Amino acid sequence: MTVKTDMSRFHIHDELTAPDESARLLKGMSSAGGSVSKFVGVLAGAPAALRSFARMRHELREGALPRSTRERIALAVAESRGDTYSTAQHARTARAAGLGLDEISRARSWNSGDPREAALLAFLQALYDADGRPAAYLLEEAREVDWSDEQLLEAVAHVALNELPPRPRPRLQRSDPLREAAGRGRPGKVAARPAAVLRPSPPQRGGIAI
What we know:
Blueprint: H1 20-31, H2 38-43, H3 47-61, H4 67-81, H5 84-96, H6 101-107, H7 115-129, H8 136-144, H9 149-163, E1 172-175, H10 177-183, E2 197-200
Antiparallel strand pairs: 1-2
Helix pairs in contact: 1-3, 3-9, 4-5, 4-7, 4-9, 7-8, 7-9
């Protein structure tokens, strides 16, 4: 059966509910040991969309970047997006790729104990945070530690690939008007405690909502 969540406005398919062409792709992903996320389940509703996403992911996995580097990038992007599900998922695959717990923790902050990896992540973080306009010296520093232009461009593509899934919906934050009034130092009798007001968190940068 198809399902919807409070995040998705589209059905999340599995092998039983997806269109035939998408069902074959989903089955292939599962049998190959790949992860079938909710985002992939949503894309399965459009075989061409799922096919293009799967093709991009496959091609990048067969590219010039080591698996450990790819996992560092995925962890960094997931953490920056506030995506706890993807962060946990990539922490598991990073362990399988040989990264220790300390290195996984560093990768979540766009850092590494390996100076070469750290230079690449510093460039990618600036690219991510500056909307594609990182300082020129960061690119040169990455090149100086022997990252080729092919590898650098693949790394940029991995950032884009991991940015594709929709961002988690921000949680509502409760504000207490009584505490706010007290914090402003208002003298006099305190009124009856009003009900808490729900306020949405500030919107996050980028991402897509499906």
